[in-house]
Every structure is written in C-alpha cells, then in structure tokens.
Amino acid sequence: MNRKAAAGDQTISFAWIFMLFFIAIMLVGGVVLFFGSDIDIRGIESAQMSNKVKDCIISGKIDMKNKLELEEIEKKCGIDEKVLTDYFLLSISKEEEQLIKIKDATSCDFKGTEDNPYYPRCRDDSFIFNGESYSIKVGSHQFSRRGLG
Amino acid sequence: MTKINGKRGASDILHSTIAFIFILLLFTFGMWYYIYQQKSGASVWEDYYAKQLTIVMNSARPGDIIVLDVHKATEIAQKASVSFESIFLISDQETCVRLSQGRKTCYSFFNRVDAEIELRTGVPGNVIEIKVLEEKE
User: Domains of chain A: which residue ranges?
Assistant: First the structure.
C-alpha cells in the first residue's frame, strides 16, 4: 500500500476508535442519567458517629481529663477502630484543647471543594457539659464497594 | 483505487482487519456486559440496600429487632437466580448485598454490634428481620 493510502487508512481507524469511545460514553451517560447518581449517606453516618461520641461523653463512659486513645473510643464508645480509621476523620476538643485526632479533620473546612464528590461529608457539633465546652468534628469519606463475591 | 504492493501489503491489511475485528468484539462484549449488569438495576439496588442497612446498624442497640421491607431486592434476586439466603449478609462490621450472580456491594458500619438476619416472605411483601446482638469477641 502506498504511504498516502496508509495515512488515510490510519485516519479512518482513529475516527472509528473515537466513534466506539463516543458510543460507550453516551451509553454509560444514558445509564447514569436513567438511574441517577449513587445515594450519598456520608453526611448521615457522620451525624450518627457524632451523636454516638456525644452520647459517650455525656454518659461519662470515657475519661475526658486526658488525651483520648483509639482503643478507649473502641471499647467504651462501641465504635470500631478499623472502620473509624479507614473511612472517617474525627477530632474531639475540650475547651480548645484537642483530645484526639484521626486524620486531618481540617479538610472539612475547605468550603471551596464541597462540590467535589470525593470530598468528605462532615458534621460539626458543639455542646456544653458540666460547664465545659466540647467540640466534635466528624467526616466520612466512605464509598460502597462492589466486587466479586 | 489502492494499489497493494505484493504479499506484504496484503498481510498488512489482514493484520489491521484482524485488529479491528478484535477491538470491535472487545467493545461489543464490554458494552453487552455493562448493559446486562445494569438492566435489572441490580447494582443500584445493591447500593441502596447496603447503605440502608448500614444506617440501621449504626444506630442499632443489642436487643433491637428491626424489620425492613426488601420486596424489590427479592424480585431482582429471583430474576438473577440468586438464592434468598445469600442476598443479605451482615458480618465483620460490613453489610453486603448480592442481587446478581458473582457480584456484591458492601458498606461498613462503625457501631460494634452483631446481627442475625431472617428473611420472611409473604407478610404480605418480603421483609428481613434483623436481630441485633452484642458483638462477639
């Protein structure tokens, strides 16, 4: 085959592959439009976690005089350590003093990236208990996992 | 008209045609598989039920008995020949839902509790009864 014909042939191949990609994107787009995007419960589970920690503090299950350990949160508050460290951000403060920090919960304050679906969904709670002010910040970045099984 | 330079040119055309056919088959199979997976909405419903169970498990206390309507899930599972016993699984801090053969969707819950699930059919729809238990050490 001469060179010009070969170049023309390659151009057609490129257009053909591009067309396949275009069809695939349209098809996936159609499915997403039909079924809608995934249900997002990260905000709900952040609120649930925040309430659980708050209940734990108010019921006096954990000693809030010292720095908190993960093990203490797991055993006394009934929050699984692995799930907490894998999928959540957590910060508990008493009178501006941070008692525990799991990952950097300050990323919850980046308001500019709220539209980003991969940005954690957070919950801030403040309350006064026994004359001392407490602040709980929880964020979830968990997504459902679909796999073989 | 394209001039083919002997056997080498013919061989080039044959190779590119085979490559095109291979890509086309790969594409067709990929799209067919994707549409087949989506047609029953199995992945969407798996995601929905896994997350609903997670919300329930996060706020459950040992001793609670929770009843959830899962009629839609059982309909999809029946069409996909998935046995009812294997649709819902709660273990190791995870809720998993299987509505298609060989695939499941899982989501983790942080509340340290265990659960026993019993599927009850025809009450009048199909429901699952979740008995929340103390976590086994």
Answer: 7-37, 42-140
